UniProtKB/TrEMBL annotation:
The protein, known as: Uncharacterized protein
Amino acid sequence: MSRIVVQSVSSNTNLSKEITWERIRIRKTLDELCHYLEMYIPVSERDKIHKHDRLTVHYFNGAVSATASRNLVTTICVDEVCEKSEANHRSLTVIGRSPARDLVDSTWSDTVQGKADLLTIVKTIGSKFGITVEHIPAGGNTSQPVPSFSWENESPWTRLLTEADNQGFIITSNEQGNIQLINPVGWKVNNKFLLAEGKSLKHIQTIESGFEQFHEYIIKGADYETIAVDEQCPAGRVMTINLTDRSIDEAKLRRRAKTEMQRRRQNKVQVMVTGWGPNNDHTLPYGNTHMEEVLWNPCSIVPLDIPNAGLSGNFLISQVDYYAETALVESTITLLKPEVYT
């Protein structure tokens, strides 16, 4: 049996209140820095929540043991509270994003002095908004120096994303609202959980999309240019990316071209499962699940076994869409081959 608890912390008083909810949608994806939440609540809860308040969502799942702090799904800053009145009905909709929204939305001018590495740069910018930045795997720093990092009357987010792509990192938010700089090299498969046909999978779909795919990927640097060719896409479709930073050498340009091609041509698999985390159907009968994943989360690599769809092997969770209402709790999990990011 699972349970979802939502709490609101006032931006003015710092007091915490539990929120009664009717429907919740949460999206986490490796393609966005912020988690996204949309929640419908009774009008009677109106005084408990306001713009800029902080929301926490916890998911309690009896199938996998964990401490209370690890049951946290997301931490959200409220962007909007919308009260809607219709004939014989009033409703409240709450929309919010991770605290890193402030970094994405803000525009100013600044320079990070010295030849700082990427992790130091992200930490320096995050500190302006009181956001903690973590390196994954923890306990080290594999990011590389950046000769210069400045921006003028804009958000530094686009520049950070470009530099992360060049160095092979992913930048995203975690459940506590911190920013994570993730090095995907060496990701390990979680062999204690399995997504398998006949095991609580509500539906399965494969998505073969070509609208973001190109035949040639031309990456231009200040001193070099490289091209990656995708023979799976018809000739004529060309994508060009200009990177003017002189610190980007030819090897980084080749890697950027390769990763752009891999991500854009990769077919997706989506499975819908009951619950927001692994249940007894997904837990393999060996090993202790204490301190294992409580949630289906991006960045996890899990075994997939769906013979009728011709799917088998280890897949990376790139996106999770959580949904809940009074009598329904489910997740839609988007999976890709791990080499898309590694």
